Amino acid sequence: MDRNQLKKWFESPAKMGHKYSLHVVYFCTGCGIIEIPPSITARWDAERFGVIPVATPRQANLFLITGYVSVKTLKAVIRTYEQMPEPKFTVGFGSCPINGGMYWDSYNTIKHLDKYIPIDGWIAGCMPRPEAIFIAVTHLWTLIDKEMADGYKKYKENYRYYRANQEQLYGKLDWPPLFSEEDKK
Amino acid sequence: MQIWGIILSPLLALVVGIFFLGLSRKIMARIHWRYGPPITQPVIDIIKLFSQKSISHGTIFDLGLILSLAGSFVVILFLPLGQMCPLSSGGLLAILYLMLLAPLGIALSSGEAANPNSSIGISRKFLLALGYEVPLLFILLAVMTHYNTISLVEIVRIQSTTGWSFGSLPLLLSGIAYFLILPAILGIRPFEIAGAGQEISSGANAEFGGKFLAFSTIQHALHEFIGISLFVNLFLGGWSLFGILEPITNTVWGVILGIIVFLIKMLIVFILGLFINAVFPRFRIEQAIKYLWKWPTLFAFIGLIVVVLVK
């Protein structure tokens, strides 16, 4: 842990702040949410990593999608993701958001979450243990340090692709595009 | 001298308030048998929040937060910090009026965002204020009647010669009543109803993100400082320490030692408040009002009668 390295703090306080203060909005879609209460309370204590659950997407900068995403929930997932302030990071938890998992042939769940919103990292497993969340957090620190956790930038650059995928699923979306063409330049 | 006070006391309040936030997270973690975040975690959070891109919902959304921050800073100028009190005219009456500015600013700001959760949060905040203002008025009236002055500086000075008012018999009941409403003033459990994360998505803070949340956190830290330091000034004798600091009053060392003694007293009261916060669940709003208008009001009212009779 380089929490105590003063040199890094003076070089880029914002980056260190993003690393060590991850305010998480947990999206309680599927069974994955059952692993979250032990990880944020006394047994595994996520707060020592600076990870703390918050109630609204406006206050969050890490989005943890725990479990399968049905077509109906995806709408809420997209809206939550778009409401979060930049820079924001997303982590898919469990095998279902990665490739459908055990719902691979379901008519009502989406198979690849990263077609609809950008994902910075995955936690594979069915279910991953709470320790896996902390391994993911430390990996995310490395990614933020190397400026590789840039999903929110990719979302801005390739917004037309993501929006097209979303509209392919729902027909016409009932909210305006997040970025206009001028924003991208 | 006054200029130094005006510059230094808000800064000191800011540092101490944020330190208290960090300490509260660490102590709460230790009570839960967790390791807990580093004590600097609120500073890291505030640095992060200022570097985020945030969304404003309109002019009042920006100005309301600035109003509440300014209100908190002005109240701090009126509170004696040890022997240092930059603005002393008006005394307790000025403090009573100015204390309303901070929740009003937050209410204006969240009202502009038009989030239903923040509206519920604001209404709960004002209902809670209605609950604790009644005993608070009785308590302040008792203290002002007993010392025959409205000046907080004067009250602290009299206590340094005659002993703490918490120890004097007529004001004991008022002191107990203030300690009973202290969790409601600080907004900690069991009175966490205004900013309940699990019920109403952190209430008035629901639409704050980025630098707005940072300002709101700073305002919260200042608010905690105000609530505790008013208690220490009114009932625990401010900077006085059983007459030990009496010979060096009005010297530089006296002022510095006075501030240190004052902060240590605040720390003790704050940690007692944290223990209450750790063991109690959250009241419902009607339970909170019922409690606040029953026991603390009763104690404060009897305390007022005792003070008037003794006089």
- How would you write the strand order of the largest sheet of chain A? 2-1-3-4-5
Write down the secondary-structure element order of chain B: HHHHHHHHHHHH
Distance between the termini of chain B: 37 Å
> Which protein chains make the most extensive interface, counting residues with beta carbons within 8 Å of the other chain's beta carbons?
A-B, 27 and 32 residues
Biggest sheet features of chain B: none
Count of all domains of chain A = 1
Mean pLDDT of chain A: 85
Task: Assign the CATH topology of chain A.
Answer: Rossmann fold
Major sheet summary line of chain A: 5 strands, parallel
Helix-strand category of chain B: mainly alpha
Gyration radius of chain B, to the nearest Å? Answer: 19 Å
Q: Which helices and strands occur, and which strands form pairs?
A:
The complex is a heterodimer of chains A (185) and B (311).
Chain A: H1 6-11, H2 13-20, E1 22-27, H3 36-40, E2 51-53, E3 62-66, H4 71-83, E4 89-93, H5 95-99, E5 121-123, H6 130-145, H7 151-157, H8 159-170
Parallel strand pairs in A: 1-2, 1-3, 3-4, 4-5
Helix pairs in contact in A: 2-6
Chain B: H1 2-31, H2 41-51, H3 59-78, H4 91-98, H5 101-113, H6 116-147, H7 152-162, H8 172-186, H9 197-200, H10 211-235, H11 252-279, H12 285-310
